[in-house]
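thread from #wetlab-drylab

HS: before we spend reagent money on co-crystallization trials with NAI, can we at least see a predicted complex? here's what I'd submit
DV: go for it
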Amino acid sequence: MSGEFVGLSAIVTGGSSGIGRATAVHLHARGAQVAVLDLDPSGLPEGVAGFAADVSSRPSVAAALAEAAITLGGIDVVVNNAGIGATGTVADNTDDEWRRVLDVNVVGMARVVGEALPWLRRSGHASVVNVSSIAALNGLPGRALYSASKGAVLSLTLAMATDHVREGIRVNCVCPGTADTPWVGRLLAQAEDPAAERVALRARQPIGRLVTPEEVANAIVYLASPRSGSTTGTALDVDGGVTHLRVRP
Ligand code: NAI
């Protein structure tokens, strides 16, 4: 095994699908021992360990992390990727939906890192990467609750990076644009005209196509890498140019 992650152990939440799965594969390929924490950890790629966990439950996170840390021999890298979506304006989501999405998308990250801190503090290359979204930086239509959750992830990243910098724990986030994952497949399937919706999503992308899960995974692995030791408290856009480019239609 070769690569900059040899000797390091990584946790990826929501690693059974999409961006998380691609991240687990990349980390493993670069030498990390990898454990996925997911509601359904079945069917993982070869060499990746799976542990059933719900990031909205403290006991579930604590038990799975403890088991994973023993299996891997520690925790050096945490990728907070598990997340759920929501559509609608502030007029559309119930209070229970608000509580549920914020609980999974924001509090879930605090739970996972809170429980992983004792191991991260022991690591010589501790790093956390949170998965935010372009929704944190752009006003997207019909995404009030989801955007609020991802904006909170961005702010939480900066606060965590500050709190733990003196302990040698780096904290960064990625802000992906629309990525071609099972999640987006499900969103498209709900649209009145899925083919037209896919064309509209693609047209929004200055690069003319959706982002791939592998491209997001590559950015996550870059931030997590011990070679990125001076990078903390940053947000890396992986969005095909959506956030900052203004191309002529
Ligand atoms: P996905 O739906 O393909 O995968 C999400 C994974 O998270 C699934 O394996 C699911 O079982 C797991 N999960 C969901 N709730 C969980 C919980 N309570 N506890 C543990 N695991 C749980 O989604 P995708 O597209 O790969 O998204 C991953 C992350 O990327 C999410 O945080 C999402 O908000 C973010 N993102 C996705 C974008 C996209 O266009 N696909 C764009 C920007 C951000």
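DV: The chain has a mean pLDDT of 97.
HS: ok that's useful, forwarding to the group
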